[in-house]
Structure formats: C-alpha cells, structure tokens
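Hey,
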Amino acid sequence: MKEILELLESDAKLTPRQIAAILGRNEEEVAETIQDLERKKIINGYFTLINWDKLGAEKVTALIEVKISPQRDVGFDAVAERIYRFPEVRSVRLMSGAYDLAVMIEGGTMKEIAHFVSFKLASMEYVLSTATHFVLKTYKHHGTIVEDGEDDRRQVIVP
C-alpha cells in the first residue's frame, strides 16, 4: 500500500497497470487497493501542477497568517472550516508558533486578495489578526521543481 501511495504521490497519472508493472503485482489488486484508499479518504484527490507564468496568466498567491481565538468545545476547527469553504482558499493549516492558521489563497490581482482579507477573513468572528505575504515566485511546489533553471551555469573559460 505504501509503495502505491508513494508512486501516485510522485506521478498521479500512473495507471494501475503501470503501478502493477513497477511493483511486480497484479493490476486488479492494485486497482482495488487504490479504490479502497480513495473510499477511506487516504487518497483525497489528484492534482495537476501548472506553471501559469509560462502562459502569461495573471494569478496572485498569498500566504495569510491568521491569529484566532479558539471556540469552546471545537477549538480551531470551526473557524478553519469557515475559512476553507471560500473558493479563493487553496489550503488551510493549523500552525505552531506566532500565528494559528496558515491560509494560502489565489486571486486575479493583489486588490482581490486585499478585498478577501479585509471583507471576508479579517471581519470573521474569532479572527483576531491577519498578516498577508504575497508570493513573488515559486521555485518548487508539491515536490516538483516548477521552473528548472538548470542551464549550464559553468563559467566559460576562453584560452
């Protein structure tokens, strides 16, 4: 099972047939294992990593640090759930340290992000403060190098 998960994590396009061949297993067994992992929510989805910059698409990503006051009997979970239900939100993580939640969002412009923070996030009950950090460039995402700058960087030596 772990080997199947590791293969799918590195390449979600692998078919059960390909995984079976790599692992020396039966294709039907691999397919059943994957279906079982999906039913149990161990596999929660499959992603395609797109370099939007290469298409000239204007997307703005921001990391927002959020301090919240935990709710009685539910802690941080209820506030986190309200936040992750917004379509702009790409991820929400409970953190240790200076802030409670790390919220990653995407928008078309910095103004859209600012509007989201001001009117949807900061105004929520139990949100004490926010700090927004705009992503300037992504080098690696989900374990994949986004733009490989591995041109030959050796210094040219001319005789």
